[in-house]
Design goal:
Radius of gyration: 19 Å
CATH architecture: 3-Layer(aba) Sandwich
CATH superfamily: Glutaredoxin
Largest sheet: 7 strands, mixed
Strand content: 15-25%
Length: 173
């Protein structure tokens, strides 16, 4: 009986490892889902004006995208964000994360600006509150300012069509 113990342990361990391989690492469950978007005083990227985040997010479904000029994946994703802005009435908010205004502005001048407004998060304080550990990250916020969705990595047409758009349609009802 005891001679089969190593084999049983190996099979159990292999099953857990194989189960983990089939899961998408970008779909980590976020503890923020269902919680209010952090209400912090932030700085407007364009004007330098200070305001509370919830003041800009209330009463509308919003897509909040965390990006940086130094982020290669953000460059790849930016065309998709421009397409979303051009074809929808979605309230799009950018968070320029751990960047400089000069480089962030250059990025937008070259690639376009899909955002209604941009939060300048040079020190990463808001990013820390949101649990950001990589850019880009995208959040969907409902009309009450509650986080309903988080995606880590690039928003592709498939992710937009199959995950985000159905959620936005549901939230706007």
């Amino acid at each position: 009986m005891w001679k089969f113990l190593p084999l049983v342990l190996f099979v159990v361990l292999a099953w857990f490892l194989l189960d983990g391989l089939g899961k998408d690492p970008k779909k980590l469950p976020s503890p923020l889902i269902g919680k209010a978007f952090p209400d912090l005083e932030v700085v407007d990227f364009e004007t330098g004006e200070k305001y509370l985040t919830q003041d800009k997010l209330k009463d509308k479904v919003s897509l909040v995208n965390v990006w940086a000029s130094w982020c290669v994946t953000c460059r790849a994703e930016h065309k998709m964000l421009n397409d979303i802005a051009a074809t929808s009435d979605l309230h799009m908010v950018g968070i320029n994360y751990k960047d400089t205004k000069k480089e962030g502005k250059r990025f937008l001048d070259i690639l376009g600006n899909p955002f209604k407004f941009i939060i300048f998060d040079q020190q990463g304080k808001l990013g820390l509150e949101l649990g950001v550990y990589a850019t880009p990250e995208t959040f969907i916020i409902d009309q009450q300012g509650v986080i309903r969705f988080k995606h880590i990595g690039e928003i592709t047409p498939t992710i937009w069509k199959n995950e985000i758009l159905p959620l936005i349609s549901k939230l706007k009802i």
